[in-house]
UniProtKB/TrEMBL annotation:
One GO MF term attached to the UniProt entry: 2,4-dienoyl-CoA reductase (NADPH) activity
Catalytic activity: a (2E,4E)-dienoyl-CoA + NADPH + H(+) = a 4,5-saturated-(3E)-enoyl-CoA + NADP(+); a (2E,4Z)-dienoyl-CoA + NADPH + H(+) = a 4,5-saturated-(3E)-enoyl-CoA + NADP(+)
UniProt-recorded name of the protein: 2,4-dienoyl-CoA reductase [(3E)-enoyl-CoA-producing]
Cellular component terms per the entry's GO annotation: peroxisome
EC number: 1.3.1.124
Sorted UniProt keywords: NADP, Oxidoreductase
A GO BP annotation: fatty acid catabolic process
């Protein structure tokens, strides 16, 4: 599927600023990470994207490669970030076929709407394993290669729920707080050796799998929610991709160990809304009455799918 450049990249960036560089991305076929990768490839990088679904990952890689003549994009499906052996093999393949690793995005994640008493211990563990262990394994598998790069960058995709707490997101809040802490450790331990490590924390991003699972798809609910964002709108995948390009570019070389919310200021007002409910739902009524939105994507709303 061809994607117009205006949808994933602003016109302010110079061509080929990442020429000869290689980016390694977990969750690379997802709605956000695929656009981060697409932007980097358009600006000169080659890429290796990882995902659980082989056909989806390989198709995404072929599509991303079309953004620039001569681009090389490898799609490695069947990769489970919870298994270090899987990531080490993928990193080795990336280096063998593309020549090295300069940039890494740890973007593999899991999420769903569930109250604590409606979520099994296994469901909680699954999210922790994908997000936290998956990020740790990505660090372990790629750091040896990043240390050989003159422009080494590591970027984790996090969230903002743990800044204030969020009903129905205990699992994600716990996982993303851990991810943020891991990246702080990477910056401290490997900054002196040339690795720059940061976190991007997306807010409500339109037309993504994450928002489909967390917020109602009804147009009137979307419009009402957008009013609660200080910037007055949902974010776009281009907002995330542009922030990624900046952090990976020379302009971002002295930003290290930081958490960068890309959310239009919405986390400042998180107490005024929650995920998984309709705009007219009132706290604490929706909790007491177990009133989840009927506009969420997939699954029963009264218990975890995992």
């Amino acid at each position: 599927m061809s994607v117009p450049e205006s949808k994933y990249l602003s016109a302010v960036w110079r061509d080929d600023i990442f020429k000869g560089k290689v980016i390694f991305v977990t969750g690379g076929a997802g709605t956000i990470c695929s656009m981060q990768t697409r932007a980097m490839v358009r600006l000169g990088a080659n890429a290796c994207i990882l995902g659980r679904n082989p056909s989806k990952t390989e198709a995404a890689a072929k599509d991303i490669a079309t953004v620039r003549p001569g681009a090389k994009v490898i799609g490695i499906g069947g990769c489970d970030v919870r298994k270090i052996e899987s990531l080490e093999a993928a990193a080795a393949q990336c280096v063998k076929e593309l020549g090295g690793i300069d940039f890494v995005i740890a973007g593999a994640a899991g999420n769903f709407v569930a109250p604590i008493d409606g979520m099994s211990s296994n469901a909680f563990k699954t999210v922790m394993d994908i997000d936290v262990l998956g990020t740790y394994n990505t660090i372990k598998a790629t750091i040896p290669h990043l240390l050989r790069s003159s422009t080494a960058r590591f970027l984790a995709v996090s969230a903002t729920f743990h800044y204030t707490g969020m009903p129905f997101q205990a699992h994600v809040a716990a996982a993303k707080a851990s991810v943020d802490s891991l990246i702080a450790s990477v910056a401290l331990e490997y900054g002196p050796r040339g690795v720059v490590a940061n976190v991007i924390a997306p807010g409500p991003i339109a037309e993504t799998e994450g928002m489909a699972r967390l917020a109602s798809s009804r147009p009137e609910e979307i419009a009402e929610f957008a009013k609660t964002v200080p910037s007055g709108r949902y974010g776009t995948v281009k907002d995330i991709a542009d922030a990624t390009v900046f952090l990976f570019s020379e302009a971002g070389s002295y930003i290290n160990g930081q958490i960068i919310p890309v959310d239009g200021g919405s986390w400042r007002r998180q107490g005024a809304y929650t995920v998984g409910v309709d705009a007219n739902s009132k706290y604490p009524d929706f909790l007491v009455n177990n009133q989840l939105s009927q506009g969420l994507k997939g699954g029963k709303k009264d218990k975890s799918k995992l």
